[in-house]
Amino acid sequence: MTKTYQLVIDRLLDKTKQNISRFGDEFPHTSLNGSYQLNPNTNWTNGFWSGILWLSYQYSKDQDFYKAAVRTTDLMRERLERNHGLDTHDIGFLYTPSVVAQAMIEGGANVKAEGLRAADRLMKRYREDIGIIQAWGPLKDSTQGGRIIIDCLMNMPLLFWASEQTGNRRYKNVATQFVELARRYLMRGDDSSYHTFYFNQDNGQPIGGATQQGYQDGSTWTRGQAWAIYGFALAYHYTKDPAHLETSLRATRYFIKHLPSNKVAYWDFDAPINADIKPDSSASAIAACGFHELLDILPSEHPDRGSIEQVLTESMETLINDYQTPDDAEGLLDHGSYSVRENKSPDDFTIWGDYFFLEALLRLTKDYRGFWYEK
Fold first, then answer.
1. 296 catalytic, yes or no?
2. Which CATH number fits domain 2-366: 3.40.50.150, 3.40.50.2300, 3.40.50.11270, 1.50.10.10?
3. Which of left, alpha, beta for 83 (phi over 0: left; psi -120 to 50: alpha)?
4. Where does substrate bind (predicted)?
5. What is the per-residue pLDDT across 322-363, written as a single tens digit (0 to 9) for each?
């Protein structure tokens, strides 16, 4: 399959090069009527476009990708200086594939300092009084103040990286505390996951799980389950806590068990299966990266290796054969969903789906790891 993956990567890089001139200084988010909706660096997803450019440069050493990656990353720095739209947990999504990616590829004290500034911005979301990283809204907001979400697992590598760069254990301690909180409250006894969970703002006591983008509060939103697979595996890389590895494996078993026959997830594992049910190719692209991460960790004799390897291969084959966009499309991976429940891009291409699709392909060819840790 390696040759097939390389051919697909070459095709995706050709499309990405065309997108450089299409997008200019704006950032793609999700598609509408077959074209990306662009924004002037105001969305939580903008780091993924920088990440695609850095991955493309890392693979090809093409200077066109390098120049575009530097330009978009400079724009991300400007946003950090303006503090525009950064009252969110998504700082890791914004700055790990952009500023931290540049630091990993190029080094340099100035670039690393910008990454540390981003980590400090994320630390402002930490509610020490109740021990959570608040997901959305102003701190102590009456409706959002006690809320965490499973997506935030993928923002913790920024804090782990900052701890490694500085020797300051506070970054790692806060990240580890969040991972543990997610393990205890976002993961359920049957190894499925809540999208979000609420805590009492006065005393930090748990209230209960809910959803924002899933089918219903008790259902399993598949992208959230994919964040759990990948996020807990990455946490294990930094903490070496066997509970984090086991949680990733348990989330993986649940994900695999509930996949349809083509091995690409629907948008929610509990949504009614009918002719109108939407897939979420981005969930399977994220999960593919998590599966590969697990295969890099697990010993050859581990009983889960065979099933993970098989589903990873079958899932990637379906994404390649049935979910790639046509040549003239701006996106790389079709049939992703942002939020079916809210009718936001329910069946479109998404910039995070594009990013993780490319990362998964690079993992399977040149053993790259994206930018969630330095190998």
1. no
2. 1.50.10.10
3. left
4. 90, 151, 209, 211, 223, 227, 339
5. 999 999 999 999 999 999 999 999 999 999 999 999 999 999
